Input
Amino acid sequence: MTGKERRWINPNKGWVKLFERNMDVLVSRFLYPHLSKLWNPYSWLLEKRFCLAETTLAPAGWPCGLAPLRVLLISDIHSGIFLTARTLREIVHSLMELKPDLVAIGGDLVTGHSREAALVLDALAPLSEAPQGAWFCFGNHDYFGGDPEEIRRGLLSVNIKTLKNEAVKITHGGGSFVLGAIDDLILGKPDWAGVMSKHGTPHLLLAHNPDHFYQAASRGVALTLSGHTHSGQIRFPNLGPIIRQSRFCLDEGVFAFRTSLLVVSRGLGSIVLPWRWGAEPEAVLIDIIPPR
Output
């Protein structure tokens, strides 16, 4: 990326974002719960179209001499109205067969209210079996209703830890790296000083919204993991995403700016409509190796 890519409308604020939030809440809390018995194809779609993206990266700022690190990125689960716990449980079990060293859950665990997290905690529990643990950062939907700390407490009950404007040092393969997480860009309160206060610049950063990327790059973060965009959720050929959630055109995939890398997952779940097209649900398996 050049760092100059911009969309005409900033999707992170203004009337567009306010309209989207109100629509999400209306559908998830009041409309679709009454319609789901008649039409709820998303779990079926997820079983048929879920895919795994894989990449091997050697970030320039990654600690030299550190053993390869396998990271599983799961984002935008959006528990609640569309996704059944049974389907999620089956996907989690299949992903854990890949033996990740660390699991990153990139925000938006819920759709419209924090209480929805309780529906999928048992299904997510196997993620904590990763040797370096499972870690969660908050996304914008995690602030839509209720108490976000309810999500933190629920995840901790199944040994999944939450990072919010903070970082931890993790020992791995005879060395160590710093894992950090920044709060959501839209509804959270991002605090870079908090992220960097204890261990310095993170080598690996969880940031739900990929538009944190250039701020992370300016601080020397080697690799940022994000979700949020759903890659538009519905993409028609040659037209790009219908919903454009990144101001900087960071819709899906792997991006590089100067010495920093970014991975943006299309995510697992769905909002507003129980459907995806051209932007299939995914998890991302990342093998991180030291730079040569």
Remarks:
- Residues 15-288 form a domain with the Purple Acid Phosphatase; chain A, domain 2 fold (CATH 3.60.21.10).
- The helical segments are 15-35, 42-49, 85-96, 121-124, 148-156, 192-196, 213-218.
- The chain has one domain: 15-288.
